[in-house]
Amino acid sequence: xxxxxxxxxxxxxxxxxxxxxxxxxxxxxxxxxxxxxxxxxxxxxxxxxxxxxxxxxxxxxxxxxxxxxxxxxxxxxxxxxxxxxxxxxxxxxxxxxxxxxxxxxxxxxxxxxxxxxxxxxxxxxxxxxxxxxxxxxxxxxxxxxxxxxxxxxxxxxxxxxxxxxxxxxxxxxxxxxxxxxxxxxxxxxxxxxxxxxxxxxxxxxxxxxxxxxxxxxxxxxxxxxxxxxxxxxxxxxxxxxxxxxxxxxxxxxxxxxxxxxxxxxxxxxxxxxxxxxxxxxxxxxxxxxxxxxxxxxxxxxxxxxxxxxxxxxxxxxxxxxxxxxxxxxxxxxxxxxxxxxxxxxxxxxxxxxxxxxxxxxxxxxxxxxxxxxxxxxxxxxxxxxxxxxxxxxxxxxxxxxxxxxxxxxxxxxxxxxxxxxxxxxxxxxxxxxxxxxxxxxxxxxxxxxxxxxxxxxxxxxxxxxxxxxxxxxxxxxxxxxxxxxxxxxxxxxxxxxxxxxxxxxxxxxxxxxxxxxxxxxxxxxxxxxxxxxxxx
Length: 536
Description:
The protein is an alpha/beta fold. The protein has helices at about 15-25, 25-30, 40-50, 65-75, 90-100, 115-140, 140-155, 160-170, 190-195, 200-215, 245-265, 280-295, 305-315, 325-330, 335-345, 355-375, 385-395, 400-440, 450-455, 460-470, 475-495, 500-505, 510-520, 525-535, and strands at about 5-10, 30-40, 55-60, 80-85, 105-110, 180-185, 220-225, 230-240, 265-270, 305.
């Protein structure tokens, strides 16, 4: 049972009242091992200064030092002491002052000993509960320290830091280094490793990493490590000549762990800005967080500093004209070199013009939206492509690095070029097929010409001529002649029409020119062709 050696100090200038309380209360039954009595406030205060007292029972009206004054001084010595005040006067002001001072309870004379016993039982129950809570509090000091440092790196105003100072004093933290910094160590490939190794093996390896990180941190004058599932936040303090030397010291000591674990975990270390006050660590933490965002732009680097990368990024300028229309023009020309140069310029406009992955996605969305519009306009959009675009922009972590965006854009543009070629080929075939149908339907018209056919297709005669030659491997004029001669052959074999009529029906206004063309095509005159097949 907690506090079996509970001590009570009884104070009253009335000897009879003191004796009555001493003999009327069953102290042993309450678990009280010691009851000491004095008869004035000064003696009581001296006793309190040299002895542990858990319960103070004091009269209010005493010569020299009143019970109220004694209570105030007792609480200053021991804030956890429980005070029961006694008075012969039924005055509300006494009760009000007793409550204001923090007295546990207030009773009047003559004393009802049963009532006093009830009050003592309540006092003892509260003391035991507080003792139990104190034990819990002592055991939870590590958790309180962790909560302190988490609040420290996230708080952002002086008022909250003043509250944290009280916790630092309670936790007995020595926060007197000249410089402080926050490091955010992240295992970028943790999800892949968990799937590959399994949770148990991954956790074992993560513990190895944690051991190495804590070992390095312990070499500094001050350190505290906060751990999440895949991240370490290291708060480090050092007494050193300059911020430059401090940063060099940090990198040199963490270099070995970075080299050892980087290839295994995709380890990356975000370095915050150095501060000369522990109460300004929130800014260091924020810059360490910002530094990690730049891994998207610089995946090959292990140590990342937001300020240094921002300075580097400001020197990176866009190359050439990177408007979306220039990209579309390159795709239309199927100019892969031009497409590659455009993507290179687009990618290298970061991080100079952007300082976060969200902004990169925003600009990427603009480019992709133009590509989608282009595909819809030419009817080369596929459900698979639509699905891929939707997935990417609903999963912001799809691209782990900016290099992945570059590769994806290049592959996408190559696919669009391929689809465009297939679409153009189909379009050309369609044009030629339409031309063939038009010729087949209108070959009997002696005025039928290349210009008329091109006008029907709404393209230029030269373009139609070139296109027909490429698709059919035959001049369009040759195809028209072949169509007319084939039709004439059928009329010669299946009718008794005269040559003049036949020549007119197949589009020749001159019978002799028809005969010349027929002989050139078949090697026979129309009359000879008819006679030969009639004999058969």
